[in-house]
């Protein structure tokens, strides 16, 4: 049995565009578990607002780097770690771009590969470049002011960083886009597309 930990933000947690949370079976980690088989365990550890490594002055506990080691110990040993973060890094008050988000993911990779006191092996790593942001709507419009153009560069910086760090890589913008309802979050079809793309990437790399 393999343990796959999905470490992400609201796109992993299962936020419904414009509010609410999808039932478990419509979130992509659950769909991935269905595809891989339930002798494996796919853990959804998404959290709305989570960043790669920035402390959000308006949301407590959203620094991804600060909580990764605890997550790996809590759910360990973890065979595969899927990192899908960076969208929230583009919020206006952080004033950074996708290059800095990719460097944040690199710090998470380093953390995941550090020796631990339990003797757990380092997990295999999958880096998912977040989808491009469309026109943010409603309450998201001010938060993500200027983020549309920045998000176009996720693919480039994340792929370069993933190759350099010998990680599996998936460009989600190549297979899906956010819902037009709010321009950021995924509809149920996009969740399904992401689950299938990750299954194709992982199916031959996870022991039966």
From TrEMBL:
MF (Gene Ontology): hydrolase activity, acting on ester bonds
Show which residues constitute the signal peptide: none
Do you know which InterPro entries this protein is assigned to? Ester_Hydrolysis_Enzymes (IPR051532), SGNH_hydro (IPR013830), SGNH_hydro_sf (IPR036514)
Specify the domain of life of the species encoding this protein. Answer: Bacteria
Tell me one Pfam family matched here.
Lipase_GDSL_2
Identify the species of origin.
Marinomonas ushuaiensis DSM 15871
Any idea what this protein is called?
Arylesterase
The record's section on Gene3D superfamilies has:
SGNH hydrolase
Location of the SGNH hydrolase-type esterase domain: 6-185
């Amino acid at each position: 049995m393999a343990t796959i930990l999905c470490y992400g933000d609201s796109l992993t947690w299962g936020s419904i565009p414009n509010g609410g949370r999808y039932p478990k079976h419509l979130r992509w980690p659950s769909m991935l578990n269905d595809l891989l088989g339930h002798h494996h365990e796919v853990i959804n550890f998404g959290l709305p607002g989570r960043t790669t490594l920035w402390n959000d002055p308006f949301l407590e506990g959203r620094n991804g780097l600060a909580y990764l080691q605890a997550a790996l110990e809590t759910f360990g040993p973890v065979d595969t770690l899927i990192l899908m973060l960076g969208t929230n890094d583009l919020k206006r008050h952080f004033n950074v771009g996708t290059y800095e988000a990719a460097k944040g993911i690199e710090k998470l990779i380093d953390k995941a590969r550090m020796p631990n006191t339990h003797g757990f092996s380092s997990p295999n790593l999958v880096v998912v470049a977040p989808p491009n942001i469309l026109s943010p709507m409603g309450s998201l419009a001010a938060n993500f002011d200027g983020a549309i153009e920045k998000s176009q560069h996720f693919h480039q910086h994340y792929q370069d960083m993933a190759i350099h760090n010998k990680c599996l890589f998936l460009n989600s913008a190549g297979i899906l886009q956010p819902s037009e309802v709010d321009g950021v979050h995924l509809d149920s079809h996009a969740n399904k597309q992401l689950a299938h793309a990750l299954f194709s990437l992982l199916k031959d790399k996870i022991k039966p």
